[in-house]
Write a structure and sequence with these properties.
single chain, 232 residues, alpha+beta, globular, 11-stranded antiparallel β-sheet
């Protein structure tokens, strides 16, 4: 009897630990394929005052896929992407190190819609994101979450159980080469935008209930074992 109780208690703890581990899992729920029209400028950086500027993507045709198993959208959908991120001037947002640059403090919005512009697949706002690249090169650049935050919404999927939203964009063929003059990142353009979007999945109410029941069951079995030990 004690052996069975021990097995059940161990199983209850294992189940509860497993549920707890799955309670907050990092996940990538959207992938964005490289945008169409290689060789055509699709993303641009326009400098403003010292240390500032705006990064923009204007109605670029790309392909979006909700690739998590819960929200799998099959082959995905063609989508129009718009993006605007501004880095304020005069606050030390541009730094350089080892031949690379980081334009910090990007804040703004993005949106993926169907080609008719009537359905929003994914949209969001972000703050304190980074634009990064290598000075003197005409290769790729990236927009990353850095220390920043984001908030996503969608007309087609339920994002209510996702927190810690984050995004990453990439682009290629930046031209002219990335350069800095008098503490300001100079204008450039690029194309082939791609990216990924993710967050932390938190459990639905039913999962929380099962976790609580698991903890309660484990506690009850442990108390039962203690009573049996005292009686013996």
């Amino acid at each position: 009897m004690r052996a069975i109780t021990k097995i059940l208690a161990t199983s209850a703890v294992a189940l509860t630990m497993g549920l707890a581990a799955s309670a907050a899992n990092a996940m990538t729920f959207v992938n964005v394929a490289g945008s169409t029209g290689n060789g055509t400028d699709q993303i641009s950086w326009t400098k403003t005052a010292v240390g500032g500027g705006t990064l923009a993507i204007n109605a670029v045709t790309t392909h979006i896929n909700f690739d998590d198993s819960v929200w799998n959208d099959g082959a995905g959908e063609d989508a129009l992407l718009t993006f605007t991120g501004t880095s304020d001037a005069g606050v030390g947002n541009l730094t350089t190190s080892g031949g690379n640059f980081t334009q910090a403090g990007l804040h703004g919005t993005f949106k993926f819609t169907n080609l008719a512009g009537t359905v929003t697949y994914l949209a969001g706002s972000f703050s304190d994101y980074w634009l990064q690249g290598t000075l003197g090169q005409t290769g790729s650049g990236n927009v990353t979450s850095g220390p920043g935050t984001a908030n996503f919404t969608s007309d087609v999927v339920d994002l209510s159980y996702v927190t810690g939203d984050s995004a990453q964009f990439g682009f290629t063929l930046a031209h002219p080469a990335f350069s800095v003059t008098s503490g300001t990142l100079n204008n450039f353009k690029g194309n082939s935008v791609s990216g990924s979007f993710g967050g932390i999945a938190v459990p639905e109410p039913a999962t929380w209930a099962l976790m609580i029941a698991g903890f309660g069951g484990a506690g009850a079995m442990i108390r039962s074992r203690r009573r049996q030990a005292v009686a013996a």
